[in-house]
């Protein structure tokens, strides 16, 4: 608490005055918390004076959000840094929001004010631009100088440079302007555990996995070798027994966060008993493989490619198809998706075409983002296991038979004709996006658990290393 009050003085946050007439004071409260490291140990005790509500100021209150780096952009940085042999560093700004200026009748922003995140971001952005950085044209990532890259997530900053002098210079600049903490090699960021070695970078969430197993009383459950059986077919189950919705949604939310490093559980679970049982199977699989993660190899090429697949009419409730896509930067898996399509596809061709369009859209965003890293691309391979879907994109004769497909999906055809996408047929056995459209079982019989676990890990190593 004393440190927080000292920060108020150093940042000239407030003046103690009598409340002016006809003004409503802002309520505040003290919030205490702990910042923990990857091992679960307390790194720092934190105390915050948090405001309740917002400062009245008419139209100036409309903009409150603060841009942050997307998860795909963070993984792209991991892959890029590993490929180039850059050692990523991290820093945390102490009492970051107290550094933000707001237009209303306060000197500085306070924690709890809805304007505070954007006010802090505006000041940091202004400082970095004046320091010679260039803001990313797509993602709000900054870069500058001779390969010095900075990514921002509120008050947590990760950065890496091609030389020690660049990194040291940036660290000194930030330290002179703001009070910093937790400066050093990147090891724990947004719940991700990062291990940077001589051969590459490994990103995982083993601690978080164990935490949620304990939270939902699954720590002593019997492990399973797959997250979902191929015989599982979930439907509305309207006659099934209802379950605790709060617990069920908590389990789903926990798993959604875990998919940041676990694409192997991306395709899996009206909360009914059958649905909860399916979710518990995923937790049992996590008990079996708690330390799986993403590997970004040093020296990997930075070529860009995508895979797309679809499960036609896979949903038993509304018969909508599931699109599965994944995108690689060299050998590094940096983006993936498994989601139900917005409309019912009338054929496998249509479902595959829609999935390919979704993958094309993500590749377009990644290409623009990577241009901020100084990378340029020509024809980007998009691998589809449906020759008929490729024909729809290539053959103008088929245009009249696809008028019912939403116009937004036809930009796949447009980009093929422009020559910046190369549609390639890939056999199903090599379709890496297959894991995002249907449950896959490990075909190992009569083998003990240790060998099965090794086989799972080798499959993921193959997934990342395939088609280099």
Number of strands: 18
The radius of gyration computed from the alpha-carbon positions, rounded to a whole number of angstroms, is 25 Å
Q: Which residue ranges are poorly predicted, with pLDDT under 50 across at least 5 consecutive positions?
A: 54-62, 461-468
Helix content: 25-40%
- Estimate the strand proportion: 15-25%
Helical stretch tally:
11
Helix-strand makeup class: alpha+beta
Kindly state the mean pLDDT as a whole number? 78
Biased composition (Basic and acidic residues): 1-17
Protein name: Reverse transcriptase Ty1/copia-type domain-containing protein
Pfam families: RVT_2 (PF07727)
Domain Reverse transcriptase Ty1/copia-type: 106-229
Description of the molecule:
- This is Reverse transcriptase Ty1/copia-type domain-containing protein.
- Pfam families: RVT_2.
- The chain is built from 11 helices and 18 strands.
- The protein is an alpha+beta fold and 468 residues long.
- The strands form 4 sheets. Strands 5-6-7-8-3-9 form a 6-stranded antiparallel β-sheet, with helices on both faces.
- The N and C termini lie far apart (53 Å).
- 34% of the residues are buried.
- The C terminus is likely disordered.
List keywords for this structure.
RVT_2, 5-stranded mixed β-sheet, 468 residues, DNA/RNA_pol_sf, alpha+beta, single chain, 11 helices, 22% strand, Reverse transcriptase Ty1/copia-type domain-containing protein
């Amino acid at each position: 608490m004393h440190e927080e009050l000292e920060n108020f003085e150093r940042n000239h946050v407030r003046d103690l005055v009598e409340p002016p007439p006809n003004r409503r004071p802002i309520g505040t409260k003290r919030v205490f918390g702990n910042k923990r490291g990857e091992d679960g140990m307390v790194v720092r005790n934190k105390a915050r004076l948090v405001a309740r509500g917002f400062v009245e100021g008419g139209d100036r209150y409309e903009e409150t959000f603060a841009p942050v780096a997307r998860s795909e952009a963070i993984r792209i940085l991991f892959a890029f840094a590993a490929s180039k042999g850059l050692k990523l560093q991290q820093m945390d700004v102490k009492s970051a929001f107290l550094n933000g200026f707001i237009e209303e009748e306060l000197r500085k922003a306070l924690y709890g004010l809805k304007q505070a995140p954007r006010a802090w971001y505006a000041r940091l952005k202004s400082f970095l631009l004046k320091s010679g950085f260039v803001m990313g044209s797509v993602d709000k990532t900054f870069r500058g100088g001779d390969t010095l890259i900075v990514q921002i997530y509120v008050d947590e900053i990760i950065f890496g440079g091609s030389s020690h002098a660049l990194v040291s210079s940036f660290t000194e600049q930030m330290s002179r302007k703001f009070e910093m903490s937790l400066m050093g090699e990147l090891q724990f960021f947004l719940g991700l555990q990062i291990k940077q070695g001589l051969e590459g970078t490994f990103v995982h969430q083993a601690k978080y996995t164990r935490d949620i197993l304990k939270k939902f009383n699954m720590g002593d459950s019997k492990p399973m070798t797959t997250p979902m059986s191929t015989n599982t077919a979930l439907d509305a189950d309207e006659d099934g027994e209802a379950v605790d919705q709060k617990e069920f949604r908590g389990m789903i939310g926990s798993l959604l966060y875990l998919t940041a490093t676990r694409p192997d559980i991306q395709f899996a679970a009206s909360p009914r008993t059958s649905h909860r049982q399916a979710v518990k199977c995923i937790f049992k699989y996590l008990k079996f493989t708690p330390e799986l993660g993403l590997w970004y190899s040093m020296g990997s090429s930075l070529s860009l490619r995508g895979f797309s697949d679809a499960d036609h009419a896979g949903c038993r409730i509304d018969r909508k198809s599931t699109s599965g896509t994944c995108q690689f930067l060299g050998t590094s898996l940096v983006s993936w998706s498994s989601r139900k399509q917005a409309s019912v596809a009338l054929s496998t061709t249509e479902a595959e075409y829609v999935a390919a369009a979704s993958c094309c859209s993500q590749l377009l965003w990644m290409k623009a983002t990577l241009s901020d890293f100084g990378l340029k691309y020509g024809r980007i391979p998009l691998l589809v296991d449906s020759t008929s879907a490729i024909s729809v994109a290539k053959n103008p004769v088929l245009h009249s038979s696809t008028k019912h497909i939403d116009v937004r999906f036809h930009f796949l055809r447009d980009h093929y004709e422009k020559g910046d996408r190369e549609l390639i047929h890939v056999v199903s056995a090599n379709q890496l996006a297959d894991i995002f459209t249907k449950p896959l079982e490990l075909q190992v019989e009569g083998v003990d658990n240790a060998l099965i676990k090794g086989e799972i890990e080798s499959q993921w190593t193959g997934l990342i290393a395939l088609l280099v």
